[in-house]
Amino acid sequence: MKYPNFSLEKKLIKEGYQNIVGIDEVGRGAWAGPIIAVAAMISYKKQDTSNKQTPNFKSQILIKRSRELGSRLRYKIKDSKLLSEKVREAMFEQLSSRVIWSLGIVTHREIDKLGLTRANILVIKRALRCLEIDPDYLLIDKVNGFKYKLPHQLIVKGDRKILSIAVASILAKVTRDRMMRKLHQKFPQYHFHRHKGYGTKLHQDCLKKNGACRLHRLSYKPIRTLVKS
């Protein structure tokens, strides 16, 4: 298996860029809940008087496994969808304290109002606005119609190729999953803690039985169809 690597970031650093941001979003294909985007800086220069370059984060990190995971193992960063939930959670604790990152959220109501494409663009821009260090180059998992004032690249399956984007994908996935688990406590009849709002058979059965709740994206055809059936 090929893992995301730091080669593109290194190339950009040689070209003079310093604050390089990887961006990914999760929740685009879900039927309920928000879209979450994370902007993550692995390579950056602190904006202070010391003018020292912050060390680049290594692509391979050592994680001490919890009792549930057994003895400690070495994990490599990769697309969050290719990691188990337990491994993602463990990596989140390591990554979240070692990189500069920020969060963007677009609610289900905004998705219904704006449409998925515009909502996807908005959530990325919200994440960028919250960064504590100004970026100078963006590496983004492919998003249709995205335009921005800074130089950037839109990369197909970027979370499987680019280390910065893969880090962002893990932070975004864990953040959204935690949010959906909390929402399950308010709407237990939908089992959001299990399917996280995606259109699984369990979720479809819950919709047929209970109808839609205020977290569902009512503009989505599958939701309208299941609620009416």
Characterization of the model:
α2 (85-95) packs across α5 (163-186). Mean pLDDT is 85; it is low at 49-74. The protein has 229 residues and is α/β, with parallel strands linked by helices. The chain starts with 6 loop residues before the first helix and ends with a helix. It has helices at 7-14, 85-95, 108-114, 116-129, 163-186, 192-195, 201-210, 221-228; strands at residues 20-26, 35-43, 60-63, 73-76, 100-106, 137-141, 152-155. Strands 5-2-1-6-7 form a 5-stranded mixed β-sheet. Helices cover 38% and strands 17% of the residues. A hairpin with an 8-residue loop joins β1 and β2.
- Mean pLDDT over the full residue set: 85
* Spatial order of the strands forming the largest sheet: 5-2-1-6-7
- How many extended strands? 7
Helix content: 25-40%
Question: Which structural class fits the helix and strand makeup?
Answer: alpha/beta
Main sheet attributes: strand count, strand direction, barrel closure? 5 strands, mixed
Looking at this structure, what is the CATH superfamily? Ribonuclease H-like superfamily/Ribonuclease H
Second rung of CATH, namely the architecture: 2-Layer Sandwich
- Indicate the proportion of strand residues: 15-25%
Overall 3D shape: globular
Q: Give the N-terminus to C-terminus distance in angstroms.
A: 43 Å
Helix and strand string, N-terminal first? HEEEEHEHHEEHHHH
Low-confidence stretches: 49-74
* CATH class group: Alpha Beta
* CATH topological fold name: Nucleotidyltransferase, domain 5
